[in-house]
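To whoever is on call:

I kicked off a structure prediction for a single chain this morning and the downstream step that reads the tokens threw a length-mismatch warning. I double-checked the sequence; it's 249 residues and nothing unusual in it as far as I can see. Pasting both halves so you can look.
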Amino acid sequence: MRLKDKVAIVTGGASGFGEGIAHRFAEEGAKVVVADLNLDGARAVAKAIGPRRATAVKVDVAKKADAEKMVAKAIDRFGGLDILVNNAGTTHRNGSLMDVDEAMFDRILAVNAKAIYLATLAAVPAMEVRGGGVILTTASTAGLRPRPGLTWYNASKGFAITATKSMAVELAPKNIRVNCLCPVAGETAMLGLFMGQDTPEMRAKFIGSIPLGRLSRPDDIANAALYLASDEANFITGVALEVDGGRCI
């Protein structure tokens, strides 16, 4: 019960890493707002957790009104907000940086970068009322050790990491800790986009770059998120934690 009496928002909570985080937080006592553009998926996750401990809300994280709506949902349903997990993300398909059109570029920056800004503006006042809080963002090893083929995605995750460190310093006087996770490619719906194509050969190539010999899984990311969100990490802020099986060594 490491998150007993805590209220958390998890964006992109309908699937993948976000679903894993939502379930893990609930197992440890948190009440969770599952926020996702896919409302049916968010409702399914909330239902699996249980109505007393989770609720779903449809959110486009790139819209200011939606960011405010999910924070209002946490306050109205559960009485406040202690933890914000900026997990929603998107990418372009692995390939030449010249082949990414402007609309896709704008969407990547909106979801992976601007959404952090919008969620922070909405969440920080609610956390101040509680005497502090935790902001946690799902970044990527792509923001630390970029490789060709995902240039604009890599850049958006570099933003997430730098924003995390700067936010940590500025929000420390408010007792708000800010950290991010840097997963290696994982068993999620975006894997095919990261690799360009999901084939046994491409999987073997990606796994071959990971010393521990496998892709990341939602439970890997959820357990790391749990630690950083818990009071056990109350002296840790501004960290970009690699959850990557040794990929960045």
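Update from on-call: the warning came from a stale cache, not from the record. Cleared it. Sanity check on the structure: The CA atoms of residues 12 and 36 lie 5 Å apart.
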